[in-house]
Design goal:
Layout: H1 2-17, H2 31-43, H3 66-85, H4 132-143, H5 146-177, H6 181-210, H7 214-235, E1 245-246, H8 251-255, E2 279-281, E3 286-288, E4 298-299, E5 310-311, E6 340-342, H9 350-368, H10 371-380, H11 387-403, H12 405-415, E7 418-423, E8 429-435, H13 437-465, H14 483-500
Parallel strand pairs: 1-3
Antiparallel strand pairs: 2-3, 2-6, 4-5, 7-8
Helix pairs in contact: 2-3, 2-6, 4-14, 5-6, 5-11, 5-12, 5-13, 6-9, 7-9, 7-10, 7-13
């Protein structure tokens, strides 16, 4: 929790500055995740102490030098924090407040000298004189607006998808497609983010070039949500071969409720279920729970890649112990020992890897397309004097109901697909070692896609509410505002006037 505390302390200046930042400029916020996935991919190929261990990076015992990324990112935060601190407290030749239209209610053209020095409420009270009662009235004005509630709910639902799905997407690539940690960070993180950035920039250009109105921006928010959901549903059909391990119940037995540990593979070895270390018999393409289950008693010296094969693996040669179908066409020479190496056997999932990456890359473009319009829409559906409060309430809601619970919510769904847990000495289970890849694929993508559909429905309500609005608050199309927001604003103003009396 400590790291999250520092994260939100550093986010405060950004939240307060959102009303003064164009939505198109916020695309730069995606550079951070891009750098993060890139640094993570580079660090995943370096062992934690810079040595060459006797197992490859694909081995479950591999621990990357994660602290390198921490140092790089921390250095970047310090540098840009100091750079931000050298800016002046005020910017010269600026006007404290401007209007979105050039004429007032009397039809007289306004000039800079006619612009007031302070923002004022409807009754003329200055923002500098606001108190706790005024804050409560403004909160009521926000929380009784259906447009604001739907748009904010849509944003924290999107936060759940981004924080949850992108957090576990590299794990999906490792478990379901047999990718290495480096490839998972590139194909499951870096490339989809590049597509999202491209969509973000394109969306900003489209909004600015064609001068889209709130109803158009609303459609730009709703329609891509349904398109991206369709892409996630399409990912369900891309699957790779299952991983079966000698010593662990296969998927059919696991789904029938048989989760008992099988120690009869090599009974003379008395193997422990706590010594998990999968090995692969290369000739038969068979995975074993540990070197002990394969009957291995020694290792050869490592080669240039650090991978060391096992020798004297007596149980591998007994074909009766192999999974059904793996040894039907194999005939061993009694004098030849099979090759047994650390890690899972390689799976040919290249086609599936490129296919799902292409889907995420294409539909990720639609995920980033509406991002520039989010801030524009969020500030248009509230009064001008509520922009700062709108930014604060929205950020708190998105963090509390989206970014923070997203990984927890998605993590519980991913954990529900686990078929093999690490057994701790105290009798409890630790991390998941092996997943049911079919359930993982279905639950992961169905959950993420369903959340995107919900987001699209919420934005559809916003489109209906803002259909007659314009970003120019003095435009004739805005002369008849939304009835609910108008009545709320009038009642709140009356309460404020009565309080000041």
């Amino acid at each position: 929790m400590q790291k999250w505390s520092f994260f939100y302390v550093g986010t405060t200046p950004l939240i307060l500055g959102l009303p003064y930042v164009d939505g198109f400029a916020l695309a730069g916020r995606l550079i951070g995740p891009l750098v993060g996935f890139g640094v993570g991919a580079a660090c995943s190929t370096v062992y934690i102490d810079f040595t060459t261990p006797p197992f490859p990076p694909s081995d479950f015992r591999w621990i990357s030098a994660w602290y390198i990324g921490l140092l790089v990112i921390a250095g970047g935060l310090i540098f840009f924090g100091l750079a931000t601190g050298v800016f002046p407290s005020t910017i010269r030749h600026t006007v404290p407040h401007t209007f979105d239209h050039k004429e007032d209610t009397t039809g007289k053209e306004m000039t800079l000298k006619d612009v007031p020095d302070e923002k004022c409420f409807h009754d003329g009270s200055s923002l500098h004189n606001l108190g706790l009662k005024d804050l409560l009235i403004n909160l009521r004005r926000l929380l009784t607006s259906l447009s604001f509630l739907c748009r904010t709910s849509s944003m924290f639902v999107d936060g759940m998808v981004v924080a949850g799905a992108f957090h576990f997407l590299p794990l999906y690539f490792v478990q379901n497609l047999g990718s290495s940690q480096k490839d998972a960070a590139i194909f499951g993180g870096l490339l989809p983010l590049i597509s999202i950035v491209a969509g973000n920039v394109t969306g900003g250009i489209v909004i600015k070039r064609f001068k889209l109105q709130p109803r158009h921006v609303g459609l730009l928010l709703a329609i891509p949500s349904f398109v991206f959901a369709a892409g996630l549903y399409g990912c369900i059909g891309i699957q790779c071969d299952h991983v079966n391990i000698v010593g662990v119940p296969n998927l059919d037995d696991f789904r029938d409720g048989n989760i008992a540990f099988n120690n009869s593979v090599c009974p003379s070895c008395a193997c422990s279920e706590q010594q998990y270390g999968p090995v692969c018999a290369v000739e038969t393409n068979t995975n074993y729970f540990s070197p002990c289950h394969a009957g291995c008693r020694a290792m050869k010296p490592g080669n240039s890649t650090g991978s060391r094969p096992y020798v004297n693996c007596s149980c591998v040669e007994e074909e009766d112990n192999l999974p059904e179908g793996t040894s039907a066409n194999l005939h061993y020479n009694a004098t030849v020992r099979p090759t047994v190496r650390s890690g899972f056997c390689a799976r040919d999932c290249t086609t599936q890897l490129y296919g799902i990456t292409a889907l995420l890359f294409i539909f990720g473009f639609f995920e980033g397309l509406p991002m520039p319009g989010q801030i524009m829409m969020q500030f248009r559906i509230v009064d001008v004097d509520l922009k700062n409060l709108c930014a604060a309430v929205t950020s708190i809601a998105v963090a509390a109901f989206g970014w923070l619970p997203g990984p927890i919510f998605m993590g519980s769904i991913v954990d529900s697909t686990c078929r093999l847990w690490r057994q701790l000495a105290c009798g409890e289970h630790g991390a998941c070692l092996l997943y049911d890849t079919d359930q993982f694929r279905w639950k992961f993508f169905v959950t993420a896609a369903s959340l995107k559909v919900l987001m699209g429905l919420l934005d559809s309500v916003v489109v209906w509410r803002v259909w007659r609005l314009s970003f120019d608050r003095g435009h004739p199309s805005t002369k008849e505002p939304l009835q609910l927001e108008l009545s709320t604003r009038q009642s709140s103003t009356a309460e404020l006037v009565e309080t000041n009396k």
